[in-house]
C-alpha cells in the first residue's frame, strides 16, 4: 500500500468501530452490560455479492448489532459465511486495535467490574513523570481487559494530553 504523506482528506469525525465476533448473542450481552445501553439495532442481517466485494470477500452473510454511545457507535459483526479464523490480538501486535472507554473514577469502575467477574490483564496503572510525555499526561490512569473474543479494551481516566479535544 502506498500513501502520500502530504495528502489531506479531512477525516476528522469517527462514526463507529466495527468488531468481528464469533457469537453475536454473547457479545451483545457483554457490551450491553459493559455500556449500560441497549443495542439500537440487534440481530439484523447483511448479505450479497456487492457488499461482500466491498469487504474484499467473494461472498458474505452476517448478523450484526449496533450500540450508540454518546460519541461513537459500536458495530458487533458475526460473519456466518465465510466464517473467519480467530485473530490473536494483543497490544504489541501490528494491526491490533483497542477500544477505550473514558471514565471519571477508574479505580471505582475497575473494582465494580472485578466484583462482577470481569478479568483484567493487569492491575490499574497511573502514568508517572519519568514514563510518559507530554508532562501534563502524568496521573492518567489506565486498565486493560478483553471482550469474549479477545478484542483489546481499555478504561482510561485521562489527564492533560490524553484527555483529547474538549
UniProtKB/TrEMBL annotation:
Q: Which InterPro entries match?
A: Glyas_Bleomycin-R_OHBP_Dase (IPR029068), Glyas_Fos-R_dOase_dom (IPR004360), MMCE/EMCE_epimerase (IPR051785), VOC_core (IPR037523)
Q: Would I find Glycosyltransferase among this entry's keywords? A: no
In Swiss-Prot or TrEMBL terms, this protein is called Catechol 2,3-dioxygenase-like lactoylglutathione lyase family enzyme
Query: Transmembrane segments in this chain: where?
Result: none
* VOC domain location: 13-158
Give the molecular function GO annotations.
dioxygenase activity; lyase activity; metal ion binding; methylmalonyl-CoA epimerase activity
A Gene Ontology biological process annotation?
Answer: L-methylmalonyl-CoA metabolic process
Organism superkingdom: Bacteria
Mind listing the UniProt keywords for this protein, alphabetically?
Dioxygenase, Lyase, Metal-binding, Oxidoreductase
